[in-house]
């Protein structure tokens, strides 16, 4: 049923946008918003397939995950292994700054201030909310995922996944361009990806950087504590919870990544009976991406401007 309610509306939205292109490009762009939201839902299916949790069958997870990748522009095998590294040790300050992974890594205030002025400027620039949450997400999914730039050469299967996904895109979009014209194809699929990537990256950002999130280091990292205290329970309205595939129950997902999205709510109720977890509301979620540094003195996440005020003499 989730496949029907994810792929069905997404493909219908794409078709509606192509029809709307004959009347007005602005009407087509308006349809990109709900269609992009359905792409997020398709990505959640791919995410669960990557964890081997959507189906009991490993083969079924692989097949559906690869089908999802043709909608989400995300090479399945490569992303699956990269994401597994995230689940191996998250909210751990000993990881430092992982370079390309700016959304689930964090520097301490002390480490940030120890950087040279140029490196501090560069670190802050790419994490500016407008760049990190609006400019970079479409570039990551449209361009960066086309290159196995951060995939080790020993990951042969994963590097092949990137190339095969790209070849599939060439065949798919060449056919669409021949049938429908390059302008309509570009308008439809680029606008959908812009919407979906911005929504998806925003969700991913606040899953570990939110008011009250706990980050630890120096050997103090513990699996259960990192899941329950370092991953968010994003308490969304029921409609948004449905669109985002219950990924707001992220603390439960990190507690056990083999729980499929359609069982997370039940698992959340069971976990809450054992250990209380504060919820993150929609308003706080909108402000969460600004929390980018860990202040070891106060034991909380802070914004760049909080550090700048501290440096400014009275």
Automatic annotation (TrEMBL):
Keywords of the record: Membrane, Oxidoreductase, Transmembrane, Transmembrane helix
Transmembrane feature ranges: 26-44, 130-149, 161-180, 186-206
EC annotation from Swiss-Prot or TrEMBL: 1.14.19.-
Protein name in the entry: Fatty acid desaturase
Keyword Transmembrane: yes
Gene Ontology terms, MF aspect: oxidoreductase activity
Domain Fatty acid desaturase stretches: 25-274
Superkingdom of the organism of origin: Bacteria
């Amino acid at each position: 049923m989730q496949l029907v309610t994810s792929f069905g509306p997404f493909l219908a939205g794409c078709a509606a946008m192509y029809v709307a292109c004959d009347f007005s490009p602005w009407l087509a762009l308006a349809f990109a918003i709900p269609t992009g939201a359905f792409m997020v839902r398709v990505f959640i299916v791919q995410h669960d397939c990557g964890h081997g949790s959507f189906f009991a069958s490993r083969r079924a997870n692989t097949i559906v995950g690869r089908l999802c990748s043709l909608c989400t522009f995300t090479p399945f095998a490569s992303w699956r292994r990269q994401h597994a590294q995230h689940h191996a040790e998250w909210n751990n300050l000993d990881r430092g700054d992982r370079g390309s992974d700016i959304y689930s890594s964090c520097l301490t205030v002390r480490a940030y201030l120890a950087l040279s002025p140029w490196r501090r400027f560069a670190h802050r620039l790419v994490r500016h909310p407008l760049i990190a949450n609006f400019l970079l997400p479409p570039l990551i999914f449209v361009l960066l995922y086309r290159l196995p730039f951060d995939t080790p050469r020993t990951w042969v299967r994963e590097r092949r996944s990137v190339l095969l996904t790209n070849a599939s895109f060439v065949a798919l979009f060449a056919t669409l361009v021949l049938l429908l014209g390059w302008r309509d194809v570009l308008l439809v699929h680029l606008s959908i990806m812009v919407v979906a990537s911005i929504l998806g990256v925003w969700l991913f950002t606040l899953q570990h950087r939110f008011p009250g999130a706990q980050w630890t280091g120096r050997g103090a990292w513990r699996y259960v504590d990192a899941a329950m205290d370092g991953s968010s329970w994003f308490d969304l309205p029921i409609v948004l919870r449905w669109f985002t595939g219950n990924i707001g129950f992220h603390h439960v997902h990190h507690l056990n990544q083999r729980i499929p999205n359609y069982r997370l709510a039940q698992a959340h109720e069971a976990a809450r009976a054992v250990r209380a977890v504060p919820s993150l509301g929609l308003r706080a979620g909108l402000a969460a991406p600004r929390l980018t540094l860990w202040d070891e003195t106060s034991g909380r996440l802070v914004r760049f401007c909080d550090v700048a005020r501290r440096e400014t003499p009275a």
